[in-house]
Structure formats: C-alpha cells, structure tokens
Amino acid sequence: MKRNHRLLQQKRFQLWYDEKNSCWKLSKETRKKVKEFEDYDKAYAKALKEARSSRPSKLEVIKETGSRFEIFPRNPI
C-alpha cells in the first residue's frame, strides 16, 4: 500500500468567486468539474463536506484579500 501513490495523494479542492458570472465556484482536482453557487455560505459548507469526506484532502479558499488553506489528514484526530 505504501507504494500505491494514488491512495496516499491529497485531493485538492478550490473555492473562488467568479466575477464574470457573479457566483462562487467549487472545483475538484482540476477546474474541469466545477459546481456553481450563488451564496458563499452554501458553497463553503459544500466544500467542507466534500473535502472531509474524501480524506486526505486540501481545501483552498480564494478571496480578493488572499487565499487560505484547510488540510484534512487521512486519519482524523
């Protein structure tokens, strides 16, 4: 199992505001699969739910003031 890197790699999630479409967008791994939300609170709740359910994962929230990361380890403490 140690050598199977697909099992151990972190999944990446990104949440950002799209000014062109006036909505929040959530993407998994790459920006190919994108979900759109009108409200930040709903988008953030969905992002947390998906990131926690697919551990190990990293959630990046991108805002105008900067970005922040939340990391969800494989084994929750």
If you average the pLDDT, what whole number results? 87
Strand portion, in percent? 35-45%
As residue ranges, the low-confidence spans are none
Count of DSSP H/I helices: 2
Give the N-terminus to C-terminus distance in angstroms: 22 Å
- Give the structural class: alpha+beta
Determine Rg (CA atoms, Å).
Answer: 13 Å
Number of strands: 5
> How do the strands of the widest beta sheet line up side by side?
3-2-1-4-5
Q: Could you estimate the helical fraction of the residues in percent? A: 10-25%
Taken in chain order, the helices and strands follow as HEEEHEE
**Molecular shape:** elongated
Characterize the main sheet: 5 strands, mixed
Any descriptors?
five-stranded mixed β-sheet; 42% strand; elongated; alpha+beta
Question: What report would you give on this structure?
Answer:
The chain is of the alpha+beta class. It has helices at residues 5-8, 40-53, and strands at 11-18, 23-28, 34-37, 57-63, 66-72. A five-stranded mixed sheet has the order 3-2-1-4-5, with helices on one face. The longest helix has 14 residues, at 40-53.
